[in-house]
Amino acid sequence: MKKHRRHPGPSRGTNQNILFGQQPVHEALRAGRRVINRVFLLTGRSDTNQMRNIETLANAARIPIEQVEAEWMERQCDGGNHQGVAADVAGFPYSSMDEILAAARKAEEDPLVLFLDHIQDPQNLGAVLRVACCAGAHGVVIPSNRAAGVTPAASRASAGGAEHVRVACVTNLVTSIRTYKDAGGWIYGLDAREGAVLYTETDLKGPVGLVVGGEGVGLGRLVGETCDGLMRLPMSGVLDSLNAATAAAIATYEVLRQRALA
Predict the structure, then answer these.
(1) Domain of 220, in residue numbers
(2) Full-model pTM
(3) Which residue, 71, 89, 107, sits at the end of a domain?
(4) In sequence order, what are the residues at sequence separation of 6 or more whose Cβ sits closer than 8 angstroms to the Cβ of residue 231?
(5) pLDDT tens-digit map of 116-130
């Protein structure tokens, strides 16, 4: 096994792009999409199969592994639950809409794409990306302004799923929705406004795009008007809405259910 260098790590503030936690770092290494400059392991910690897998993957990719002290690890991770592992990573490798559609063609599958209308909480974004990864969605589209990006916090919230999902960051969400429609896709927005159809009564077979609204405000007016249809989830309790990730999961798996029956 490659011998690790012992190193206190860079001083605080030198590197702001620290990904931490065993699962997020492991998935970033496994996906091989993001540039990883160094992997940091807490001195004396290599006590799980996943940590040993992290070492194996980092060594295979010739990524330096450095032993660091607990105080440095805590400081760099802002006291988060690092589980003895962190990595110095480059920015997230965003995709284009063309690349998302090309991935569907390569897989010989009808595209399944999630469009997120200004979700601002990285935790919510990460949870949606986890849904997209688990459901095998071909991509996720997010706006570049007034919305969360795929930061290390979002990747952690996705349990590393973000590292495997194609995400397009676009200047105009409505334009991207129209591009998808021009390519033959049907767009359905999740919304409870008047005229929305129950999600199980919406035909979600074929090339589908699902639009999920942001926290508290739902779909923007123009986004909603650009959709081919709106669909609602049944609500019978005291609260009248679900969080974005839960709503996205229900709708996405309904797409999979209908495709399996087609």
Answers:
(1) 97-261
(2) 0.88
(3) 89
(4) 188, 189, 190, 191, 196, 197, 198, 199, 201, 202, 251
(5) 998 999 999 999 999
